Structure formats: C-alpha cells, structure tokens
Amino acid sequence: MIMVMAYIEDSKKHIFYPMDLVYKNKSEAVAQVKLIHENLSRKGVTVDAAVLYELKLSQKINLTQDCWEGENKEKNGYWRYKRYITMMGQPGLYEILILPRNWDAKRKIWQLAVSIPFYRGGEIGFIEQFIKYSRDVVDIRAKSCATYTLEKSYRFSREDNELKQAEMLMEPNSEVN
Questions:
Q1: How does strand 144-157 pair with strand 2-9?
Q2: pTM given for the model
Q3: Measured between alpha carbons, how far is 170 from 167 in angstroms, rounded to an integer?
Q4: Three-state SS string across the chain, please?
Q5: What are 103-116's pLDDT values in tens digits?
C-alpha cells in the first residue's frame, strides 16, 4: 500500500499535504498525483512533486459501535497538517492510522483513507478515542482499521516524470529537533 504527500502550490502558499486515500501500488499513486494536478491546474494550483511512502502493517484495531457514537466530532485541518509535518522529520517514530472509508461493492474492495500519524507503540485506547471523536469517515460495516509504519519513500517529480527512491530518516535526529 502507498500513502502520498503532495507538494501543492498556488500564488499565495506552498504546502506539503497528505492525500486522502491509500493506493494499491506506486503506479496508481503517481497516476492520482497527475490527475489531481490536471484538475487543480484549472484553478491556478499545481502539484509539481510528491513523496510516496510504502506502508507496512503494524497492528489491526477492532472497531466497535462505540467508534461511531462519539459527540462533538471535531478536527481542524491545520492540526492534521501539523502532525504530518512533524512526522516527516522522523518518520520512523510514527505509525499512520488507516481507516476503511467505504466498501466498493462493485470492485469488492475497501476504499482506505489516510487519517493521522501516531507515535509508534502508543496505546490503542488513545487511537480508539481519536476515531470516536474525529470527523474521519469510517464505514459502519467495517470490523477493523489498522496502523502502518512507513517502510520506503520515493520522490516523484512531475517535471521529469520520474519516481526515485529517497532516503528516509528512521531514527531520532537532533538536527531535526
């Protein structure tokens, strides 16, 4: 599975932001980056580069009815963005929560969504509370979600249309802090 962080810019801002969905492979992820660029370029926004991360299953988390009954579901987009920027400094310290957003009955597959990073080895209860009170969409038919670690990273540049493996910092580094 592949998670994508896209470099998005317009005349006012430049951001590195996680795309919503998880992709089956690198070619599917690159195709989505290109498609998003085509769609956004009509609005004066470009997606010139992206970092693709291979994901490895860390742990499954059972979902219960309690996960859908939380009140005051609130999640600020900036808060999510800030967590990803922090994670990118030391990705080896984090796991990414992946949630089953929707069941595609025609293709018989789950549409999986990228939620947020959590420190590795954190308590499952904390993640369950996050699911309960966040605005992330979770299909009520789903029995579980999971956390994944980042295994390898690749840089994609739309300019040269190349995907190259990139080095990823996996240990704490005082230069980043």
A1: unpaired
A2: 0.83
A3: 9
A4: CEEEEEEEECCCCEEEEECCECECCHHHHHHHHHHHHHHHHCCCCEEEEEEEEEEEEEEEEECCHHHHCCCCCCCCHHHHHHHHHHHHHCHHHEEEEEEEEEEECCCCEEEEEEEEEEECCCCHHHHHHHHHHCCCCCCCCCCEEEEEEEEEEEEEECCCCEEEEECCCCCCCCCCC
A5: 999 999 999 999 98
